[in-house]
Design goal:
- There is one protein chain.
- With 466 residues, the chain is of the alpha/beta class.
- It is 50% helix and 6% strand.
- The chain folds into three domains: 2-121, HUPs (Rossmann fold, 3-Layer(aba) Sandwich), CATH 3.40.50.620; 122-154 and 190-275, Serine Threonine Protein Phosphatase 5, Tetratricopeptide repeat (Alpha Horseshoe), CATH 1.25.40.80; 286-461, DNA Cyclobutane Dipyrimidine Photolyase, subunit A, domain 3 (Orthogonal Bundle).
- α1 (18-26) links the parallel β1 (2-8) and β2 (27-35).
- α13 (311-323) crosses α14.
- The N and C termini lie far apart (67 Å).
Length: 466
C-alpha cells in the first residue's frame, strides 16, 4: 500500500480538500502537522489558541475515522525528511500556501522531497486570475470581473470513507499544545459549516446594508475559519452562488452578492501579496512611500488601549483586545483615525492587529490597512478621511456598540454618546461621567488635523515627482 504524508498547514478540514482526496485514493494517509517556531512566534496569542483548539478538533474528527493527527515540532524540511524515513512514505501532499514565507519554504522542500501541492486556499490560484496580457490585476473591480468570468468548478462531492487507514502504532506524536477555548469562536470544520448555514439563511439576506452596522450581528463571523482553512472558500462561494440563483428577492440577491464580493476581496488581497510580496514592507503606491509620519508613542499607546476620547474608536480597540476580533467597519474607522487623524504610520496599526487578531492574515490585514491609509493598491483616495463621530452616529445610532465596550459611558444619553465632550458640565456631574476624568477628552480635533494629513500626503507625492 502506498503511504502518503498529508501535510496540514492552514487547512484544518476534511471536506472539499483536494490534497486529502488525492491521498485517500492512492493509499494510506498519515495526517501531519508541524509546529514551525518561525511561524508560531509571529502568531497572536488568541490566534495560537484558536489554531491549537482547531488541531484538537481535527484530531478528534480523524480519530472518529480510525486515524489520528501526528504532531511534530521543528524545521519543516527536517521533520518531513524524518517522517519519510520512519514511514516509508512515497509522497507528501499539501494545499498551496501563497504567503512569501510559505512559497520559499515549499520551493526549498520540493527540491529535496516529493512534495505535491494542490489548490485550495483560494477558489482560483493567484496565477490564474490575470489580465489578457498575463500581468496581475491591481484594481479590485476588473479583478472581480475576471474572477467571476472564470469557469467555476463545484466543490468535490467525494464521499469520505467512514474509516481512514490507521496510522502506524510505532509513529510517535507530540501532544497538541494546550489551548484556551475562545467562547466567541468554537473551533472546527463542523462549527464553520454551521455558521455558514446560519449566516446564509439569515443575516446574509440583508448583508448589503447590515454588514456596516456595529450594533447588529450582520456579518458572518467566519474570518477565523477561513484563516485556518476550517471552511473551504470554494464551498462558501458555491453556497452563496446557489442562494443568489434561488432567491426571488432583489434585496436578498443584493445581500448575497455583497458577501460574494467580500470573498473575492479576500482572493484579491492574496493575489496582491502573491505578485507583489514587497507590500509587507512598504506601501504599494511608490508616490506615498515618503510620507513623514509622526513619531508619537504616547498617542499610539492610547489608540491601542482604547483611550483616544472618541467612543467608537475606543470601543473597537477594546473589543479587539478582549476578543481578538473586530467588526470590519470598525477596522476601517480605527485605521483611518490612526493614519489620518494621528498621522501615525499604518504599519504600526498593521503590526498591532497581527499581534491581536484571531483571524489575522498577512494578505487581508496588509491590504485592509493600505486601503484605508490610501497608500495601497486600489486604495481609497488619500483625501478620504473618516469622521469618527459621523461614522459612529451612522453605524451605531443608539450607541449600543459603544456602551458594550466602553462601560464608563453607559449612562450617557444617545444624543451625546458619539461626542460625549459636548455634554454640558451640569449633565456630566449629574451622570457621574466627567470628561477628562472618567473618560478622556478627544486626543485631537478631527477638523483641525485634516489639513495636516492632506499636506503630508501631498508632500510625499511632490517628492516622488521631483
Amino acid at each position: 500500500m502506498t503511504t502518503i504524508l498529508w501535510w496540514i498547514r492552514r487547512d484544518l478540514r476534511l471536506h472539499d480538500h483536494p490534497a486529502l482526496e488525492y491521498a485517500l485514493q492512492k493509499g494510506r494517509v498519515i495526517p501531519v502537522f508541524i509546529l514551525d517556531d518561525r511561524l508560531l512566534q509571529k502568531e497572536a496569542s488568541k490566534r495560537k489558541q484558536f489554531l491549537f483548539s482547531g488541531l484538537r478538533q481535527l484530531d478528534e474528527d480523524l480519530r472518529k475515522r480510525g486515524s489520528q493527527l501526528i504532531i511534530r515540532r521543528g524545521e519543516p524540511l527536517a521533520e518531513l525528511t524524518r517522517l519519510i524515513q520512519e514511514t516509508g512514505a512515497e509522497e507528501i501532499v499539501a494545499l498551496e500556501d501563497y504567503s512569501p514565507y510559505a512559497r520559499r519554504r515549499d520551493s526549498h522542500i520540493a527540491r529535496e522531497l516529493p512534495l505535491h501541492l494542490f489548490a485550495g486556499e483560494t477558489v482560483y490560484p493567484p496565477s490564474l486570475v490575470l489580465k489578457p496580457d498575463g500581468s496581475p490585476y491591481t484594481v479590485f473591480t476588473p479583478f472581480s470581473r475576471a474572477w467571476k468570468a472564470l469557469p467555476f468548478a463545484s466543490p468535490s462531492v467525494v464521499s469520505l470513507p467512514e474509516r481512514f487507514p490507521a496510522v502506524p502504532d510505532k509513529l510517535v506524536s507530540l501532544p497538541i499544545p494546550e489551548a484556551i477555548f475562545l467562547q466567541d469562536f468554537p473551533p472546527g470544520e463542523l462549527e464553520a459549516l454551521r455558521r455558514l448555514e446560519n449566516f446564509l439563511s439569515g443575516p446574509a439576506r440583508e448583508y448589503a446594508d447590515g454588514r456596516n452596522r456595529l450594533d447588529q450581528p450582520g456579518t458572518s463571523f467566519l474570518s477565523p475559519y477561513f484563516r485556518f482553512g476550517m471552511l473551504s472558500p470554494r464551498w462558501a462561494v458555491f453556497q452563496v452562488r446557489k442562494m443568489i440563483q434561488i432567491t426571488s428577492s432583489p434585496d436578498e440577491k443584493r445581500g448575497y452578492e455583497a458577501w460574494l464580493n467580500e470573498l473575492i476581496w479576500r482572493e484579491f488581497y492574496i493575489s496582491i501579496l502573491y505578485h507583489y510580496p514587497h507590500v509587507l514592507a512598504m506601501a504599494f503606491n511608490p508616490a506615498l512611500r515618503a510620507i513623514e509620519w509622526r513619531d508619537a508613542p504616547s498617542e499610539l499607546q492610547a489608540w491601542k488601549e482604547g483611550k483616544t476620547g472618541y467612543p467608537v474608536v475606543d470601543a473597537a480597540m477594546r473589543q479587539l483586545k478582549a476578543t481578538g476580533w473586530m467588526h470590519n467597519r470598525a477596522r476601517m474607522i480605527v485605521a483611518s483615525f490612526l493614519t489620518k487623524d494621528l498621522l501615525i504610520n499604518w504599519q504600526e496599526g498593521e503590526q498591532w492587529f497581527m499581534q491581536n487578531l484571531v483571524d489575522g492574515d498577512p494578505a487581508a490585514n496588509n491590504g485592509g490597512w493600505q486601503w484605508t491609509a490610501g497608500v495601497g493598491t486600489d486604495a481609497a483616495p488619500y483625501f478620504r478621511i473618516f469622521n469618527p463621530v459621523l461614522q459612529s452616529a451612522k453605524f451605531d445610532p443608539q450607541g449600543r456598540y459603544i456602551k458594550t465596550w466602553v462601560p464608563e459611558l453607559t449612562s450617557v444619553p444617545t444624543e451625546f454618546i458619539h461626542a460625549p465632550w459636548t455634554m454640558p458640565l451640569s449633565l456630566q456631574i449629574s451622570l457621574g461621567v466627567r470628561i477628562g476624568r472618567d473618560y478622556p477628552t478627544p486626543m485631537v480635533d478631527h477638523q483641525e488635523v485634516r489639513g495636516r494629513v492632506l499636506e503630508a500626503y501631498r508632500t510625499s507625492q511632490g517628492k516622488t515627482r521631483n
